[in-house]
What we know:
By secondary structure, the protein is an all-alpha fold. Among the domains are: about 5-55, no CATH class; about 85-115, no CATH class. It is built from five helices and no strands. The chain is elongated and about 90 Å long.
Amino acid sequence: MNITELMELFSNPETIKTLETGDLMTGIGVTVVLGMGITVVALIFLMYIIGGMAAIMAEKPKEVKETAAAAPKPEAAAAPAPAANNDEELVAVIAAAVAAQLGTSASNLIIRNVTRSLDTTPAWGRAGIVDQMATRL
Length: 137
């Protein structure tokens, strides 16, 4: 029995029961190889499509045209603004957050000291750890 006849018999559930063990195993093997083969071919096809899309969408390096007269190089950039400016902004943001949490105006608060916490775990992370430890016993 050739493979096409075997696969025709294999397509009908009633005729599968009448097949001999060798023919049944051959049909199973052909079905597995066809299924896996089609899957591998489809995945390879998708791989090439995605690779092509990545190549099309990738940014191409911009070509810089050299001018005859070289532009003078700029001097060193000015130093960034002092950190005190950023600290004032940070205090203002913290004051606004505390005021929003307390439901009051930021002008009603006096912030005397702002220090960084040693534990950098977010509050939800600490709450999860406490919850796990509480339910452990």
